[in-house]
Specification:
This protein is of the alpha/beta class. 47% of the residues lie in helices and 14% in strands. The chain has helices spanning 62-73, 87-97, 111-121, 136-145, 157-168, 176-192, 204-214, 219-226, 230-244, 249-271; strands spanning 2-4, 24-26, 32-34, 53-58, 78-84, 101-105, 126-130, 149-151, 195-196, 200-201. The protein has a five-stranded parallel β-sheet with strand order 5-4-6-7-8, with helices on both faces. α4 links the parallel β7 (126-130) and β8. α2 (87-97) runs parallel beside α3, α7 (204-214) crosses α9 (230-244) and α7 (204-214) crosses α10. The N and C termini lie far apart (74 Å).
Length: 274
């Protein structure tokens, strides 16, 4: 049986949020149960305090996970609603505990799979990745999975607290190194985008259609050559004409040829000796 730790309920005078008063247990069937909450019939009204950031901690090393939960819960800015040790328990806990931010140790098995699932099923939950290697592959993979922030292994508690506050405000958080990695990735993707000089961007399929147009093929012939419907070929031609800002097929082909020549001349000039 896997136990989801939930912070013990505080005395009414010090209580900051409504928490479950007993541990959640996730059985082998995946069902989640909890002990009955104590009666509130004669409980005194709780004082109104500013809401805190509700945090769910995930990690497969219990001492590490519980230590983080304890440190964060001592800080009045945060309320730890629970901690989990696996992807399966995490998916159950997110649905029940209404966390604002998920703090996940990326060393946990299937951590990225869990992030992807939570971003889809609970888009309001922000994900802070803890101890993810800041290599280009790992940072880009985390960002594509839906991570909103990165905290390196070398971070202090105040670094972690600052990152959590950033995510709670709806901001993104990462180190300068991770930001540089992401910017380089964006630049690479932009460079890979098929482009005609002059700021006109065409998709790879539109480039293929335009090259067939240059050969004088009709829409039907283009469709046959590419294995697509005639209506789809017509849509591609229409989009090309709009992007190139011409009204006739011949004008689009002519403009492509002239720009190709200009690009070739510029490349030759760049490579010629001074």
């Amino acid at each position: 049986m896997e136990v989801v730790y939930v912070k013990p309920q505080s005395p009414p005078a010090l209580h900051r949020t409504h928490e479950l008063s007993s541990p959640l247990s996730v059985g082998s069937s995946g069902a989640t149960t909890s002990a009955s909450a104590p009666s509130t019939a004669h409980r005194a009204p709780e004082p109104h305090l500013e809401p805190t950031t509700r945090i769910l901690v995930a990690g497969n090393i219990r001492l590490y996970r519980d230590g983080l939960a304890s440190l964060l819960d001592r800080d009045e800015r945060f309320t730890v609603v629970g901690s989990v040790a696996s992807r399966e328990a995490l998916l159950d806990a997110v649905a029940i505990l209404r966390a604002d931010v998920l703090l996940i140790d990326m060393a946990m098995p299937k951590a990225l799979d869990a992030v992807r699932a939570i971003v889809v099923s609970h888009p309001d939950v922000r994900v802070l990745a803890l101890a993810m290697p800041e290599t280009e592959h790992d940072v880009c993979e985390g960002a594509e999975a839906g991570v909103s922030g990165f905290v390196p292994r070398s971070a202090s508690f105040e670094d972690l607290a600052g990152a959590l506050e950033c995510l709670d405000r709806g901001e993104l958080h990462c180190s300068a190194q991770a930001a540089g990695t992401l910017l380089r990735r964006v630049a690479t993707l932009a460079a890979e985008q098929p482009r005609i000089s002059g700021g006109v961007h065409l998709t790879r399929r539109e480039i293929e259609v335009l090259e067939l147009m240059e050969q004088g093929l009709s829409n039907k012939q283009i469709a046959t050559s590419l294995g697509i419907e005639v209506a789809t070929a017509k849509n591609h031609v229409h989009n090309i004409l709009e992007k190139v800002q011409v009204h006739r097929r011949g004008d689009a082909v002519s403009r492509m040829r002239s720009r190709r020549l200009r690009n070739r001349d510029r490349d030759l000039a760049d490579t010629s000796p001074n």
